[in-house]
Amino acid sequence: MEYGRRMTIKPLIILPDPLLRQVSQPIEQVNADVLQLADDMLETMYDAPGIGLAGIQIGVPRRILVVDVSREGEEKQPLVIINPEIVASSDERSVYEEGCLSIPEYYAEVERPAAVTVRHVGRDGKEHLLEADGLLATCLQHEIDHLNGVLFIDHISRLKREMVIKRFTKAAKSKPKAI
C-alpha cells in the first residue's frame, strides 16, 4: 500500500454530527492530493478497523470511498472508488448485518440489492465498471449512501433509528468539549 507518500490516520466523524448528512461533491480530477486522501482513508479504515470508508466520514465532503472486503489472513485488496454511480442493481435482495465506523458498536440487518454495477473513476484517473455481489455489493451501497448523506440506519425502522440517534446525541452531549 505504500505509494511513496506518508499516510495519516484521520479522526472519524461520529453520529450525530450533521456533516454525515451532507451530500458530497464530485472530484474534478485525480491528482496527488486525491491520491494522498485515498491513502489516508485506507490507513484510517484499516486502523479502525473497518471494510469501507467514505470521505465524508473523515470530514471531507468529496465523492470518494475506499473498501477492502478481504478476510483476515488474506492479502489486502484495497479499492479506491472516485465519483461512484450505481448504474445497475439486481432485483434479487440480500440481508447483511451492517455496522458503521461513524456509528460505533451499533449493528442492524439491512436489506439491499444482492448485486450492483458501479461506474467510477479509479486511482489511474480512468473510468471503470465494477460488478459486485455479496459483501462487496453491500459495502459499496453503504459507502455510496454516505456520499449522498444517507446512513445505514435510514434503512431500518423509524423507531429503531430514532433510538440510535437519541443514544448517540446523548453520548455526544456528555463528552467533554475540547479546548
Can you walk through the features of this model?
The chain has 179 residues and is α+β, with helices and mostly antiparallel strands. The chain has a single domain, classed as Peptide deformylase (Peptide Deformylase). It has helices at residues 32-47, 134-147, 158-174, and strands at residues 52-54, 64-67, 79-89, 93-100, 103-113, 115-121, 127-133. The protein has a 5-stranded antiparallel sheet with strand order 1-2-3-6-7. The protein has a two-stranded antiparallel sheet with strand order 4-5. A hairpin with a 2-residue loop joins strand 4 and strand 5. The longest helix is centred in the C-terminal third of the chain and has 17 residues, at 158-174. It is globular. It starts with 31 loop residues before the first helix and ends in a 5-residue tail after the last helix. The model has no long low-confidence stretch (mean pLDDT 94). This is Peptide deformylase. Its cofactor is Fe(2+). One of its GO terms (molecular function) is metal ion binding. Fe cation binds at residues 100, 142, 146. The active site is at 143.
> Could you give the count of β-strands?
7
Beta-strand portion reads 25-35%
Low-pLDDT parts are: none
The name of the CATH superfamily reads: Peptide deformylase
Helix content: 25-40%
- What separation lies between the terminal Cα atoms? 35 Å
CATH T-level topology = Peptide Deformylase
Shape summary: globular
Structural class: alpha+beta
| Domain count | 1
Report the biggest beta sheet as strand number plus sense, adding barrel if it closes. Answer: 5 strands, antiparallel
Helix-strand pattern: HEEEEEEEHH
Give the class-level CATH name: Alpha Beta
> How much is the radius of gyration in Å?
16 Å
> Main sheet: which strands, in order across?
1-2-3-6-7
Individual helix count: 3
CATH architecture: Alpha-Beta Complex
Mean pLDDT: 94
Protein name: Peptide deformylase
Keywords: Hydrolase, Iron, Metal-binding, Protein biosynthesis
Family: Belongs to the polypeptide deformylase family.
EC number: 3.5.1.88
